[in-house]
Amino acid sequence: MIATRAVHFAATSVTAGGVIFGVLIATPVLRHHAAAATSLRSRARWGIWTSLVVAMISGAMWLLLQAASMSGMPLNEALTGEVLSTVVDETQFGEVTTIRAGLAICLAASLAYDGAAAARWLRLAMAVGLVGSLAWTGHAGSTIGASGYLHLTADALHATAAAAWIGGLVSLIIFLATAQIRENMSLVRDAIERFSTMGIVSVATILLSGVVNAGILVGSLRGLVGTEYGRVLLLKLAIFAVMLAFAAINRLRLTPQIATIGSEQSSIALRQLIRNSAIEATLGLGILVIVGVLGTLHPAVHLIDPASP
Predict the structure, then answer these.
(1) What's the CA gap between 107 and 299, in Å, rounded?
(2) How many helices (H) and strands (E) does the chain have?
(3) CB-hemisphere CA count at 13 Å for 222?
(4) What is d(CA 103, CA 111) in angstroms, rounded to the nearest whole number?
(5) Whole-angstrom Cα distance, residue 162 to residue 16?
(6) I need a labelling partner for 246 at 20 to 30 A (CA). Which of 23, 61, 71, 282 fits?
(7) What is the pLDDT of residues 223-239, one digit of tens each?
(8) Rounded-to-integer distance, Cα 39 and Cα 27, Å
């Protein structure tokens, strides 16, 4: 279950991040550079299609595993029409999975008709819906009352911002590795500056929504350090801090070098930025594995007795 959830989160984030990067960064940067846009489009679409297929397959596997878990049966016995239809029709997880499958199909259709501007914005809406709806598959989906709406909103924003950053990093690497783009350093600078701005917004959203989620699921310092959920969350925060360090190096040191110094040194700075971005993306995918683990653990707030010292 943990592996399936982690693969699904990673594939969904790369898919959504790729679409967000394409619509908000690559398209405006390359609007007057048809050859570079065509070269990038073929590579980027292959990556988005691959990650979308992996997301759909892992989503189906997650549904099967969830059916076995909910029914209390072994997996081979749970794979019956009666059990699966009960899970799909009568549980929140099944209903959300059905909606998300529809979003994935609409996203695939918009990818097939890539030329129209309307298809790009439809693709963006479907991608954001696909990743944001993950909130209803985790702890946020079972939080009741007014705090439940707050939790769902925060979790959906958290997932979307993470996809824009982590999945966007994958697309940024593909963008910077495209030969026709690397030959034009002004395109490189424009894309990096736009992505940097998007990254700042994403990080701010992740931090704010993460505080809300932690307040609901952890609740106290004792919950953070005294439970398995809290300690796994601390590991996630440590990796997140390392990602921020690499992002700061990219923004504060390497980006200005690319913008201001000679061509040879700009190329060196660009290679370093691509390397750092690859490290960032790898760390981000590691965080998504941890998210897969956290979703299987009882929240810390339920494990700490508020009356105990």
Answers:
(1) 33
(2) 15, 0
(3) 9
(4) 12
(5) 10
(6) 23
(7) 899 899 999 999 999 99
(8) 13
Task: Sort residue 72 into left (φ over 0), alpha (ψ -120 to 50) or beta.
Answer: left
Question: Dihedral, CA atoms, 164, 198, 191, 48, nearest 10 degrees?
Answer: 10
Looking at residue 50, its pLDDT comes to 95
Quote the tokens at residue 137.
Answer: 């598959």
Q: Both ends of the chain: CA-CA distance in Å?
A: 35
Q: Residue 186 corresponds to which tokens in the numbers above?
A: 């002004």
Q: Report CA Rg, the chain.
A: 21
pLDDT digits (tens, 9 = 90+) for 72-100: 888 777 788 888 888 888 899 999 999 99
The H or E element spanning position 307 is none
User: What tokens appear for 44 in the block?
Assistant: 């980027």
Backbone angles phi, psi at 144, to 5 degrees: -105, 165
CA distance 35 to 217: 49
User: What Cα–Cα distance (Å) separates residue 77 from each residue in 68, 72, 99, 141, 148?
Assistant: 8, 10, 26, 27, 34
Enter the tokens of residue 72.
């209390």
pLDDT digits (tens, 9 = 90+) for 101-159: 999 999 999 888 766 677 888 999 999 999 999 999 988 888 888 888 999 999 999 99
